[in-house]
Design a protein that fits this description.
Layout: H1 15-20, H2 24-28, H3 30-33, E1 44-46, E2 55-60, E3 63-66, H4 87-103, E4 110-112, E5 117-119, H5 120-134, E6 141-144, H6 146-163
């Protein structure tokens, strides 16, 4: 399997970049550190743990911490949330799905979001993923097994292709 950056798609050769699924330029960009066009991230911090080791959601004194790169904003410019169904949890779900699809080198149709673009499939699946995973997460946070999340996305991708939606 070819290792490629989840943000730009370039081939990764450095072991550290391969582990975090993102090259040094993309890793250091504002999109990873703070989200697209976000001036500060006082309510969110990002953990240096690749999503492939599991999706980590933690609540700290200064806000939330996660290892889900913030690559697109749809409805929550303030950042990620969980434990209910709303714009913050839906944006978290959108970014989880988007990062999984990018990691798989998915080549589906893209659509515009409030800030950035995402696969149309990510947009389509985000509410269901929130209902099944993110909305049920305890307020203090928790862990979503990456293989379970990826399998969920793959199953929906195959269903969508069978139905001719993508």
């Amino acid at each position: 399997m070819q290792n490629s950056c989840i943000k730009c798609g370039k081939t990764l050769t450095d072991p550290v970049s391969i582990k975090r699924n993102m090259g040094p330029t993309c890793w250091g960009s504002d999109i990873h550190a703070k989200g697209p066009d976000v001036k500060d991230s006082e309510h969110m911090s990002f953990l240096d743990v690749p999503m492939s080791e599991g999706i980590i959601l933690m609540r700290r004194e200064n806000g939330v911490s996660t290892n889900v790169p913030w690559v697109v904003i749809e409805g929550s410019p303030d950042g990620y949330e969980w434990g209910y169904n709303g714009s913050g949890p839906n944006d978290l779900s959108l970014n989880i799905i988007e990062n999984i699809l990018r990691g798989m080198q998915y080549r589906g149709q893209r659509s515009k979001a409030h800030k950035g673009t995402a696969y149309s499939l990510s947009h389509f699946l985000r509410v269901s993923f929130t209902r099944e995973f993110v909305g049920k997460m305890p307020e203090e946070g928790g862990f979503i097994d990456y293989k379970t999340a990826k399998r969920w996305v793959l199953n929906r991708l195959f269903e969508s292709e069978r139905e001719g939606n993508e």
